[in-house]
Amino acid sequence: MAKKQLVLALAAAALVAAGSNAALSQEKIKIGFLPGVVDPFYQVMQLGVEKAAKDLGGIEVVTQIPPTWGVEAQTPLLNALVARGDLNYIITAPTDKEQMVAPLQAALDAGIKVITVDTFLGDGDYVKGPVTFPISYIGSDNVEGGRISARGLAKAIGGKGTVYINSTNPNVSSVEGREQGFAEVMKNEYPDIKVVGPDYNLDDPNKAAQQTAAVIEQNPDLAGVFGTNVFSAQGAGNAVVNAGLGGHVQVVAYDATKDAIESLNKGDVTLVLAQKPSDMGYMAVQFAAADAAGVTSLPKRVQTGFAIIDKANVTDPNYSRFIYKAD
Ligand code: T6T
Q: What is the pTM of this model?
């Protein structure tokens, strides 16, 4: 090929490439990812979101993470995502099942479709419930997780004694479900167990530790503690250890952080419930891509399951792979 022809061919190829890139970028699906708070659970979820976007291609993710738990922190970030004007989907964990309905409805009205992960709006029934606009709710069966926690704690304390629930906030579907399932099992299956709480720590581990210390003081015979999420379990577990009761007061920790697993290995925590946040994030992006491609049969509810980790299985890779590793 003569030099001039080669230059022309290269220029034409560059134009084609530029043209197809432009076409591609126009077709890109843009997703806003708005989890509940900065914590290891949502960090792992974010990895799942990013992996799915990379695996599927043609997807851009804009992430905003509230520094603290609650509608006051989450709503302005949501409003800012909507105000960008370029998003097609929002994947979010509503921090309140009622109060986040209107702001997310406003997102939908602005043309952004909503998928909820981990937590739900209304009663979580997006087919027949009071809120049906989200594409799907992808997350754990938290009532069942609460039941599993209750049975594990009851077994560890020999079926009798006083146990205490430390949780984050009322009106949060995830932890509310856990409290419900836990209380239901204790009431129906363990008449010799008395449940104290829940106390609400607003997702602050220091507050959880203070509240648990007070409960230990008032109940010197306390047999067990259920921490319903990362910071509740962390704070409550620390209070038990600081009172010199590690291994005597049994602790069940929801969420498999490295911290919870260390405590399990030391004998300060009895049982750890690992959720599957990476699956939640990954599938939510897949759902957005499928919806964008015209798929109309996406299930309105997807349960992501658990791994229940104890001292006997903690080194088994089938279980340890679900420990939250964000690095
Ligand atoms: O337990 C998770 C999540 O499922 C819950 O909705 C809020 O707390 C965590 O993020 C853990 O901190």
A: 0.91
